[in-house]
Design brief:
With 126 residues, this protein is mainly beta. Helices cover 0% and strands 50% of the residues. The protein is built from no helices and eleven strands. Strands 2, 4, 5, 6, 9, 10 and 11 form a seven-stranded mixed sheet that branches. A four-stranded antiparallel sheet has the order 1-3-8-7, with no helix packed on it.
């Protein structure tokens, strides 16, 4: 049973920073492409950032480029999302997701991901 547990969400003022963590257990972490999605009220779930198995390929959604950094530690079975210069429009529930893929690539569709965390709330006040 693969489990993903997010932590690090919270309330922050605009311009502040948060670091999200996602600990993965029950599977072979290095075999997964990992990603962070978010969903704001009334909006569709969107891919924020993704990182391939070797960290050789990384994707960022345009609105977070230069502000967010995704990274992974294959020895700790954990993926991180460092979020700087936060804006009110970053407010959402953030989900960690794992894609069990044989390829060292990033995939962008939510349907590609096999396992999901429960989500962590990020609220940015203006």
């Amino acid at each position: 049973q693969v489990q993903l547990v997010e932590s690090g969400g919270g309330l922050v003022q605009a311009g502040g920073s948060l670091r999200l963590s996602c600990a993965v257990s029950g599977g072979t972490f290095r075999r997964y492409c990992m990603a962070w999605f978010r969903q704001a009220p009334g909006k569709e779930r969107e891919l924020v950032a993704a990182i391939s198995r070797s960290s050789g390929s990384i994707y960022y959604e345009d609105s977070v480029k230069g502000r967010f950094t995704i990274s992974r530690d294959n020895t700790e079975n954990t993926v991180y999302l460092q979020m700087n210069s936060l804006k009110p429009e970053d407010t959402a529930v953030y989900y960690c997701a794992a894609d069990l893929t044989a390829l060292d690539v990033v995939r962008e569709g939510y349907w590609d991901y096999d396992y999901w965390g429960q989500g962590t709330q990020v609220t940015v006040s203006s």
